[in-house]
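Standup notes
- DV: blocked on the single-chain target, sequence here:
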Amino acid sequence: MLTRRRFLAGALGSCALMSPLHVFAQRPLLSADMHSHWGMAAWGGNGDLNQGDGLRKEMTEAGILLVAMKVIADFPQLSLRGSSVHGDEYANPGLLRKYFESMASRVVARARKDGLGVVGTLADLKAAVADKKPAIALTSEGADFLEGKLDFLPEARTMGLCHLQLVHYRISEVGDISTQAPKHKGLSAFGKELVAACNKQGILVDVAHCNFAGIQHALEISTKPMVYSHGFIARKEVPEHSKNNARAIYVDQAKALAAKGGVIGIFPVFTRNPEAFADALRQAVDSVGPSHVGIGTDHSGLPRSALSGYGDYPRIAEALAKSGMSDADVQNIMGGNYIRVLGEAMAG
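- DV (later): unblocked, structure below
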């Protein structure tokens, strides 16, 4: 059985890119977060880019190699209606693109001030893994900034975008969302073109927040592995916008996504502590297998969480090990699966 000491001394068994620990890391950098808004107040809006090295410190202390840092692409259009987030469909032309460009630049600048690597290419990813240097992947929660055209996608890729969640809380030119009544019957014609374009340009496609039909369209179109970065698996009935399972992925689609090499990210919203969250990860493994489960914390984006911060990652790993999982399975769930699928998406 994997003990905490053995885990912290281990390496990502299935990730051939791994090599000896970088000297500054307090723990071997093995783990990853598929979906984060760490320091949302600082990274988005009126944050101070000169604030210390908080994220780098948390990552190195917890043994986290890679964090997918999300720009919230539809943020200017979001508002609260009671306890629900609503996205206004209409946006002034150019507004969301300008917002994305500004926020992507801020995220990259802040990461570099913190001494973090920025993974924008496969070479960057290989270097981060080989050097054991903590890094972020520039990602976007929603493709709203494209405003229904593919013209800007290559430029966004050049800026470092390597992981794109198709939709968020706004029914956009891309397609329907999981929490509102559908208008496009899944992905729009543009949304389908976008999936294919991401495949060609080395951008990982993320179907979180898509509705059932949208996920199905992406599964039919994508020629590369995809992720569902943060949510949970619905096993009893197909998710619908009017039900409590709206934000879930249906188990049959989760299995189909896994069959194409993809990864399901479980978020820690419905559990009380890291050990209970580990049980939720184990249940996901029961559905799709240990090579297709990861962690999407939605750090700073959840109203409640089983995790107080990245410092809880070792507790998750220890709980998984105590459940009888192999070293390799634990290491892959903690981060190896996401690192693998991101590399596969970015490869030519």
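- Follow-up: The CA atoms of residues 50 and 113 lie 7 Å apart.
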